[in-house]
Write a sequence for this structure.
């Protein structure tokens, strides 16, 4: 009877896990639909251009005029995005859809990783793994990161996660004497193959993780043969990448060395990175915390530290330690080096799956404890969500409100006073809910409280972003791209030129309108000459798209404004300021 009960309980657990995993995937896909259809942003044009040119010509190129050969990373991302174009047609939604697919694969991987790396073998482990997958799928940084057209936050995430998973599986089984040499060989092959795959996406991040994993495992007391085999597997993966990249370059007649030269140049740039940029560092850190859930990150760093303590005490390297080290290094390193590009910290995206899996390993009974709290847990989640709804979109405050104040010369304090009051009220609500959580409900430990807060935060922010009337992610807060493009297009005649941000240039498809280099936007002599040129039909810029110095120059330079006011008519379209050239009917085209 006991065996029958255990079998029935196991079947019910598997069904429940499948339902939760399906719900996680459905939630993620439904919330990713909106960002997948938003207009392309300026920073996405580089990867979109690579995929476009690879699809048409078999050669990846940067989106500049004249187009330049893309040589910074291997070409797996443009190849696969080009394949998506072949199936669904060459379009922005198709490119975003490929990224969304990468997110769905990562959600499934998290479920499988938590099951394979967890402690014990209880029937409820599958349910807990599915709940962690749901937690990952509901994060605003996940929902709005994968649709962004860029390799770091799309293809690199599952590729890098797979590599870390294979390494974690190898080291976590290295202390089991029952494992056969054949099992070791298969796991080593997984490490080699996944490392080669990750390198085909990007050759800067995976090697850093490989060296770190190798150093950690080499310092452990694992069997020497297994430590040597792990090193050999990493070397085999690197050699497999080199050989396949050489064959590919020979077949396509592409240069072999540029990606490696780029990696060295980035290493040199990182070593010379200015350390005295406190405001930039703080801004990067705050935006990254907001995207990837500040309460979960507190939980991760607190809970994962136990993995380090355990490793120091036992000299055994487990899969949870690799996940902790990988997540912490990628997360912390790219806050310093990469930052939040155009409003989204894309370089941090590969760290988040590792952090979730590490938290699941460090807190194996977290969801079980939450479930025992019942209605109290639901109330805490609701309280945290309510607090975040009161705070509003803090990323919008940082990426749009503050930037607009600096561009237009508005006093910063007056611009941020109302949002700051909302944030203060939200902090008070969080404090009250935390006090109640720690004193009165059944879950009285800090970790469970942070997990519930994290769930409430994700629910609120993901809901806010799903209903936002502006771009979310890159160019956060931007509106009016289609309308501004239509306005410029309706006033351009054959042969006319225009000054406009890159995304408008992309949608215009006008031969006379070229991509303009960043330095030109603040070049006074160049801008004056362009504006008085009779063939220049329009000037457009926006606070979210243009850099602060570019938008400020366009909005406040006296000489520029004098020329614009005399020759153009000003219109505001969403976030864009558009100047349309005045024309006198009946006169030749070159007489404005």
């Amino acid at each position: 009877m006991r065996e029958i009960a255990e079998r029935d309980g196991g079947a019910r657990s598997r069904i429940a896990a499948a339902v939760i995993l399906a719900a996680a995937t459905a939630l993620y896909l439904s919330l990713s639909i909106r960002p997948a259809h938003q207009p392309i942003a300026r920073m996405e044009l580089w990867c979109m251009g690579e995929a476009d040119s690879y699809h048409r010509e078999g050669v990846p190129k940067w989106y500049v005029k004249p187009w330049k050969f893309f040589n910074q990373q291997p070409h797996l991302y443009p190849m696969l995005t080009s394949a998506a174009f072949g199936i669904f047609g060459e379009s922005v939604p198709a490119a975003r859809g490929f990224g969304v697919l990468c997110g769905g694969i990562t959600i499934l991987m998290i479920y499988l990783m938590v099951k394979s790396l967890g402690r014990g073998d209880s029937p409820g482990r599958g349910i807990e793994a599915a709940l962690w997958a749901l937690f990952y799928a509901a994060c605003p940084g996940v929902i709005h990161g994968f649709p962004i057209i860029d390799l770091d936050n799309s293809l690199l995430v599952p590729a890098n996660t797979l590599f870390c998973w294979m390494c974690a599986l190898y080291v976590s089984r290295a202390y089991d004497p029952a494992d056969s040499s054949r099992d070791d060989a298969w796991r080593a092959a997984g490490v080699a193959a996944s490392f080669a795959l990750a390198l085909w996406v990007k050759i800067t991040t995976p090697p850093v993780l490989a060296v770190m994993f190798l150093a950690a495992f080499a310092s452990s007391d694992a069997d020497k043969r297994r430590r040597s085999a792990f090193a050999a597997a990493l070397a085999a993966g690197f050699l497999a990448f080199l050989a396949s990249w050489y064959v590919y370059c020979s077949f396509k007649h592409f240069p072999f060395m540029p990606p490696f030269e780029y990696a060295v140049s980035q290493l040199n740039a990182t070593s010379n990175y200015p350390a005295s940029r406190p405001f930039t560092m703080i801004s990067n850190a705050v935006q990254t915390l907001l995207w990837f859930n500040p309460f979960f990150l507190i939980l991760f760093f607190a809970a994962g530290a136990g993995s380090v303590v355990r490793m120091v005490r036992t000299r055994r390297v487990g899969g949870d330690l690799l996940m902790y080290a990988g997540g912490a290094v990628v997360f912390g390193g790219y806050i310093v080096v990469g930052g939040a590009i155009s409003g989204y910290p894309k370089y941090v995206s590969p760290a988040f799956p590792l952090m979730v899996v590490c938290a699941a390993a460090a807190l194996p009974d977290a969801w079980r404890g939450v479930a025992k709290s019942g209605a109290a847990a639901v109330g805490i989640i609701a309280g945290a969500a309510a607090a975040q709804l009161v705070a509003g979109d803090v990323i919008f405050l940082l990426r749009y409100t503050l930037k607009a104040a600096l561009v237009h010369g508005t006093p910063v304090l007056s611009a941020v006073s109302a949002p700051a009051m909302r944030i203060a009220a939200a902090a008070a609500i969080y404090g009250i809910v935390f006090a109640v959580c720690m004193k009165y409900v059944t879950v009285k430990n800090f970790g469970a409280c942070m997990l519930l807060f994290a769930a409430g935060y994700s629910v609120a922010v993901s809901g806010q972003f799903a209903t936002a009337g502006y771009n979310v992610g890159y160019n956060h807060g931007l509106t009016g791209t289609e309308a501004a493009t239509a306005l410029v297009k309706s006033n351009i005649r054959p042969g006319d030129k225009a000054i406009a941000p890159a995304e408008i240039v992309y949608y215009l498809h006008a031969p006379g309108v070229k991509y303009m280099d960043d330095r030109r936007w603040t070049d006074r002599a160049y801008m004056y000459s362009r504006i008085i040129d009779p063939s220049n039909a329009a000037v457009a810029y926006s606070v979210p798209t243009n850099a602060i110095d570019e938008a400020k120059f366009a909005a406040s330079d006296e000489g520029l404004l004098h020329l614009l006011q005399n020759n153009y008519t000003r219109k505001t379209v969403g976030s864009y300021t558009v100047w349309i050239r005045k024309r006198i009917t009946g006169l030749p085209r070159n007489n404005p």
